[in-house]
Amino acid sequence: MEKQIIKRIEVARLVALHKLGVLPEDEERRLAAWAAQSEENRQLYEKLLHAGTSRNNGMPTTEKAWQDFTRRYRVRPKRYATWRRVSYTAVACCAAVLLTTGILHFYSRDKADEIMTPRPLNSVQLVLENGNTITLDREEHAAIKQTASIPLEMNQKEIDYTTVEQESLQEIPVYHKIIVPKYGEYTVKLADNTIVKLNSESTLKYPVAFNGDSREVWLSGEAYLEVTRDTSKQFIVHAAGTEIAVLGTTFNVNAYDSEKEVATTLVNGKVEVSNEVTTQVISPGQQAITSRNNPRIEVKEVDTRVVTAWVRDMFYFDEEPLASIMETLARWYEFRVVFENENAKQRRFTLEVSRYDDIDKVLNFIEETRVVKCRKEGNTIYIK
After folding, report:
1. Looking at the DSSP assignment, which residues form a beta bridge with residue 220?
2. What does the CA dihedral 330, 180, 280, 297 come to, rounded to 10 degrees?
3. What is the rounded CA–CA span in Å between residue 338 and residue 186?
4. 51: which DSSP letter?
5. What is the dihedral of CA 132, 138, 143, 144, to 10 degrees?
6. Are 129 and 176 in contact (CB under 8 A)?
């Protein structure tokens, strides 16, 4: 560990001198050779190279280093050129020390204080009927027998139950459960060819085979479903006290435990939404809102592209207030938002960006409108 720290200090020193324009030619070659050794080295070099000039990371730039030095040591112009050369060399060295310190501060900051590009916190879990859990984190999961009689096709992105031989199963339903972690996504292809794409922090419980008079699954979180049509077996989704019944259709269900409402959005087909008191049939382009504490079912027109943007790994905001946009982004990237100008909260934006873009790129899109300014400090974003 000590050896690695010394290495970083040396690299930071060379980069700092390079940024000041005083790095000797042989040292330039040495730094370039080191950066070319590996992709990790190259990325570190790029990060250090741009660290001191970022307006968001709070580090001393070359200009600030000069100002700090002149203020601290009261440097004034002298009459003799020889002294000036010595003075400028000293200043360059001091600036390099300040810049190196800043770069190291940038590199060694606790990762918890940075806004990171989202990555799954852990692997997707498959819970079998006997309670055993399998981690779906390897590519070589083709046709592995999870029980004595159920061979499945699976990988890091999808599990397929259409290959299960229905005749080999008992009449008593066998249930599996998929648990998707934060920042993760996973697709389940059910035995009837219905496709269920699960969003971050979602859970789906389902039978290995649909042997009864209906096809029933249980959802917590958010899912996009493409249900295979079967007039003899209605497909039913149970989600936080709401029941969605279909024959064959495509729709989205948002039923996170943290939310007070369940939103069912129909893309095509026909859906019947119930809350144990009321039943409402909705058409494509409509969204049904149900709540445990409200017997009414609210139906409204929505843009399905916005609701289902996550299926395409996108954020899509259509004329939405900035406060709402930042709330959604903050939940995904895990940062804190401070509005230095309250009026900025109600400014409306139309924005479509990848959910896996770096947050800086997302903020740049917002700033390009020249309506607001965004400033990032640690894990807090200030907007004015």
Report:
1. 203
2. -40
3. 33
4. H
5. -30
6. yes
Distances in whole angstroms, Cα of residue 340 to Cα of each of 267, 305, 320, 336, 348: 39, 32, 19, 13, 17
- Single-letter amino acid, residue 218: W
- Half-sphere exposure for 360 (CA within 13 Å, toward CB): 8
**Cα 17 to Cα 200: distance, rounded to the nearest angstrom:** 44
> For the CA atoms of 64, 66, 72, 77, what is the dihedral angle to 10 degrees?
-140
Provide the residue-wise pLDDT of the chain in tens; the chain has 384 residues. Answer: 333 444 566 777 777 777 767 677 777 777 877 777 777 777 777 777 766 444 444 444 545 554 554 454 444 444 443 434 444 444 455 555 555 555 555 554 445 556 666 676 678 888 888 888 888 865 544 444 444 356 677 777 889 888 776 655 666 788 999 999 888 899 999 999 999 999 988 999 999 988 888 999 999 999 999 999 998 899 999 998 899 999 889 999 999 887 789 999 999 999 999 988 899 999 999 999 998 778 899 999 999 999 999 999 898 888 889 998 988 888 788 888 999 988 889 889 888 888 888 888 888 888 888 888 998 888 899 998
Nearest to 4 by CA among 132, 122, 104, 88: 104
The residues, any chain, with a CB within 8 Å of residue 248's CB and separated by 6 or more, are: 227, 228, 229, 230, 235, 269
In degrees and rounded to multiples of 5, residue 273 shows phi and psi of -110, 130
Question: With the CA atoms of 255, 256, 259 and 262 taken in that order, what torsion angle do they form, in degrees rounded to the nearest 10?
Answer: 0
Token pair listed for 63: 């200009």
Token representation of residue 352:
């479509």
Alpha carbon distance 379, 360 (integer Å): 12
Three-class DSSP labels, 230-252: CCCCEEEEEECCEEEEECCCEEE
